[in-house]
TrEMBL record:
Pathway: Amino-acid biosynthesis; L-lysine biosynthesis via DAP pathway; LL-2,6-diaminopimelate from (S)-tetrahydrodipicolinate (succinylase route): step 2/3. It is found in: Cytoplasm. This is Probable N-succinyldiaminopimelate aminotransferase DapC. Homodimer. Residues 25-380 form the Aminotransferase class I/classII large domain. It comes from Streptomyces pilosus. Involved in the lysine biosynthetic pathways. It catalyzes the transfer of an amino group from L-glutamate to N-succinyl-2-l-amino-6-oxoheptanedioate (N-succinyl-2-l-amino-6-ketopimelate) in a PLP-dependent reaction, yielding as products N-succinyl-l-2,6-diaminoheptanedioate (N-succinyl-diaminopimelate) and 2-oxoglutarate. InterPro entries: Aminotransferase_I/II_large, Kynurenine-oxoglutarate_AT, PyrdxlP-dep_Trfase, PyrdxlP-dep_Trfase_major, PyrdxlP-dep_Trfase_small.
């Protein structure tokens, strides 16, 4: 492994899912639903396969049906208009979108500011692009992991190229508020920064939280690459269909990198996701209602087990503090948890540069059937 990637061995998700398989523990580690997405969307994929749509290389930017559906979704939900031909690019999941965006937009030596804890691929992709990551830590305060806007402002230097934002935020479940986003936007405009914003959990927001895309703020449309994916919204994490929306020069740049990463993404699934994006509003409402109920089952279970829970406003993850159990090291705790309680979780320390700040936090996924969550909650009482 070269020097750029030396610090990135096996991803924590692979390690923890392997641990779950080996021990037979309930896997609340890697975030994937245990129920597949809608039947009609699966049928749409089968139809595309049978009809020979997408079985040979689809167009590089993605099939027109999907690009049109993505543009229509952004317009309908957020009032953002995008030309499907020049302002939408289909990628192999959000993961490739992140990689291609960073490879295309970061010069070696550029600083990239990311919210810490950060999704693990951010650090690796910044490194592959030759950039330097500058973490700005979300700190738990009054029940929520919060962004300190002064700290963000202070992190910007003459070398800062872009802000890498993620809302709703994995792993903390924080949904940045309209006010916080407005401040981020003002900073980006003032310091002339590009913004890459990972909004894969855009439809998974609960209670009073609202997802507002950064691209909707003044001055942002032309400096923002917005990333999303069918994995989370439609519960097809194995399909790996993602996309970006951005202004033409940014799409062209990201596409240049994408061409040499995968060239194209799986054809038949693109047609199916195009149909998924046109599902009626009730699909999204039901998804949110279902996930919120699951969140509450797991959150209560974790509280009863004695952990301090940061009840998330978005995503399908709960971050909890293990210190009330007399534990301080989340990595050791997660390694022992399958034996002790038959549950697998993710130590969020692996998403931090400031390891000490992340040490006592553990992430649990709640995108699982209710009986699974109830059983996990029962078992977690043995976590002490
Ligand atoms: N970004 C975030 C914040 C995620 O949580 C995930 C999925 N774990 C991804 C990107 C990757 O999405 P995809 O599976 O579409 O590549
Ligand atoms: N995004 C999922 C998570 O955060 C899984 C990602 C992965 O396996 N790379 O758990």
């Amino acid at each position: 492994l070269n020097r750029r990637l030396a610090e990135f061995g096996t991803t924590v998700f692979a390690e923890m899912s392997a641990l779950a398989l080996r021990t037979g523990a309930i896997n609340l580690g890697q975030g994937f639903p245990d129920t597949d997405g809608p039947e009609e969307v699966r049928e749409a994929a089968v139809r595309a396969l049978r009809d020979g749509r997408g079985n040979q290389y689809p167009p590089g930017p993605g099939v027109p049906e999907l690009r049109t559906a993505v543009a229509a979704h952004q317009q309908r939900r957020y009032g953002l208009s995008h030309d499907p031909d020049t302002e939408v690019l289909v990628t192999a999941g959000a993961t490739e979108a992140i990689a291609a965006a960073l490879l295309a937009l970061v010069e070696p030596g550029d600083e990239v500011i990311a919210l810490e804890p950060y999704y693990d691929s951010y650090a690796a992709c910044i490194a592959m692009a030759g950039g330097t990551r500058v973490p700005v830590t979300l700190r738990p305060r009054e029940g929520r992991f919060r962004l300190d806007l002064d700290e963000l402002r202070d992190a910007v230097t003459d070398r800062t190229r872009l802000l890498l934002i993620n809302t709703p935020h994995n792993p903390t479940g924080t949904v940045l508020t309209r006010e916080e986003l407005a401040s981020i936007a003002e900073l980006a405009v003032e310091r002339d920064l590009l913004v890459v914003t990972d909004e894969v959990y855009e439809h998974l927001v609960f209670d009073d939280a609202e997802h507002v895309p950064l691209a909707t703020f003044p001055g942002m449309r032309d400096r923002t690459v917005t990333i999303s994916s069918a994995g989370k919204t439609y519960s097809f994490t194995g399909w790996k269909v993602g996309w970006i929306t951005a202004a033409p020069p940014l799409v062209t740049a990201v596409r240049s990198a994408k061409q040499y990463l995968t060239y194209v993404s799986a054809g038949p699934f693109q047609y199916a996701v195009a149909e998924a994006l046109a599902l009626p509003e009730s699909y999204f409402t039901d998804l949110r209602t279902d996930m919120r109920a699951k969140r509450d089952v797991l959150a209560s279970g974790l509280e009863e087990a004695g952990l301090t829970v940061y009840r998330p406003s978005g995503t399908y993850f709960i971050t909890a503090d293990i210190r009330p159990l007399g534990e301080t090291d989340g990595i050791a705790f997660c390694r022992a948890l399958p034996e002790r309680a038959g549950v697998v979780a993710i130590p969020t320390a692996v998403f931090y540069d400031h390891q000490d700040m992340g040490a006592p936090f553990v992430r649990f996924a709640f995108c699982k059937k209710r009986p699974v969550l109830e059983e996990a909650a029962r078992r977690l009482k043995n976590a002490r």
